[in-house]
Task: structure prediction
Amino acid sequence: MIKKGIGRQIVLHYFIVIFLALMLVEVVFLFAIRAYYYDTIYNMVSNHIGATARSALISTSAGDYTETEYLNQILGLLKLPEAELQILDGKGEVLISSSGFESDKPVQTSDIPQALASGGTAKWIGRQATTGEPVMAVTTTLQQSGGQVYLARFVTSIEKVNQRLTEITLVSLAIIAVILFIVLIVSIGLANSIVRPINNIIAVSAQMAKGRFDVRVEGDYRYELGEMGSTLNYMAEEIVRSNQIKDDFISSISHELRTPLTSIKGWSETLDSGGYDPDETRIGMGIISKETERLIGLVEELLDFSKLQQNEMKLTMGRVELKELLKEIVLNVWAKAELKKVQLRLEAEGESFAVYGDANRLKQVFLNIVDNAIKFSHESSVIVLHLVQEDGWVRTSVQDHGIGIDEQNLKRVKDRFFQVNTQGGGTGLGLAITQQLVELHEGELDMTSELGVGTTVSVKLPFFEEGPAVRESQTEAGGEQ
Result:
């Protein structure tokens, strides 16, 4: 017995489809074989009538005989072995019969009026009224030259034919039973070939649901089942990787928060104890202020990421001149670049580089990109900020000659919480936030890099077009995306 489930449904549906198909074939076959046997009998009688009826009428004449003698002559010429021949008048009364039995009632079967109406031959299949035996009656009209109409009615038993048809039916049903048994075995095997992998996948999924992400779906499954198993294994790998990234992020952000908090706490206690001159107090307050700003930056980065994830980031859209924005960014990071003796160079091909966007968020995007370029550049190197117009777009490229990124890490560098160098500090959210902000501006961010050679980050933004088609000045990021 197959237990309840998809296996039973597969077997049941497969069995029903084959069963209905076989029943349809069986019905068509039985009707065809029955028609074949019955038509054979009918054609034999019809051919006999066609061959003898005309010669019987020509060779006999009612004027030479009494009616009884005439009918006997017709009976002798038309009779057929294994069939009763009846000569009837136009009302269906039996005038004479080859069996010798007299009938006191007229024949009322459908072949009589059909033969009279058509003037030809008609057929009727049914049971003999007196004996209940299954018979076939073939009736044809016989019309003399004087106008007298007689009917020649051949009645033959079809009981043996029906017995033969019953035997054929039983044999065909036995064959169908064997076929259905084979179908049942095959369908059970087919169901098991589908259900067994599904049960395996369910078992692995149940273990993953309990937190065991080291288990995998094993087995070389084909088609959709193979894709399902591969997808589940890939999901487990991604969960493991995400958990590792999350753990690394927690460790990193804990360190990032602890360092400024330790400095703030230490200098606060030191200043609280008193006894320091104004210069030392100024230095301590400066450190506290600097570390506080660093903490605020970390918190703001986390808040921005949270807003982006929940589609709650609001953009104040308007015309932004990228060339002026990049000049401002260069001034903001100039001091940091000077510490590493890194030169910043702005190159622009064209006159107007206006885009439609949020000036503050675009400044955040390019400030993050340029800050990363400085952080990972070699001392005394050059960072080039390049602006160019391209068919309705403004492309901004930031090219450094720093440590670069290998191909494996380049594919993941824009993932949230991912850091190429976990010792370098930060949350690993900078590029993830940058990527999403660029997408909110309907732009594109691309990165190319070669380890030990440098990195180029390219941002494409739609060119600003004046006119009534300018979009609303304030747009919710989650609403238009």
